[in-house]
Amino acid sequence: MEAYEDKVFHEMCLWKARIQRTPAGGSRLAKSLQNKINAFIPEKVHWLITLTIEKMVKAVLFGSMYTIGAKKKERSLQLKEAYVKRTARHYKNAATLEGVITGAGGILMGFADFPAFLAIKLKMLFEIATIYGYDVKDYKERLFILYVFKIAFSSQPKRQEIVKKLENWEKYSQTLPEEVANFDWKDFQLEYRDYLDLAKMAQLLPIIGAAVGAVANNKLTHQLLLNAMNCYRLRYFSPIKQLSP
């Protein structure tokens, strides 16, 4: 492989190794506490939250495919990732500004941050997929985007499950349901909501909410970018090399 590919292959292996580590005690404790809280929430409330997230994500998924251009022509991996990073800067700036506006508005505007920030992140993933050369009109490519989203915003054990699926995506995708309605939306919303609860709760506080919203949104968007790049690197390198843990 060329020098750039050697470099990013190494970065990908380090990313994968971090995912495969045993979760730290603090993160296991936080997840255990969140699971106990979830157990006290009535099932009807979970159902309502799940339905809301499902509708929001579907609207973005099926709406974005009509606003993103066709998949890009074949390019080198280095050129693709240069375009990915340039494109992501636009979304990071939009997410930061959105965090400032909603964070400054207190609790009510803080809740409005949820769908707005979700839309920004998913739209960014659509553009990243097309830059890497994938057709986002393909139903299974949209599911791949959801798995990328999950691996960025899930607990460590869940990330370990997902990375195994993504590194064997071509084979795994053959086992996926043919309808997006059969996707596990409850698991998706619980992992996403629990992860962001820890990162963004302070955004709802007065005075400091704008600063917290800006920093949290910028950091989380960058985190999504890094995970997305490594997920697509998994697909790029899987036919070339046997991935090391």
UniProtKB/TrEMBL annotation:
<protein>
    <submittedName>
        <fullName>EcsC family protein</fullName>
    </submittedName>
</protein>
<dbReference type="Pfam" id="PF12787">
    <property type="entry name" value="EcsC"/>
</dbReference>
<dbReference type="InterPro" id="IPR024787">
    <property type="entry name" value="EcsC"/>
</dbReference>
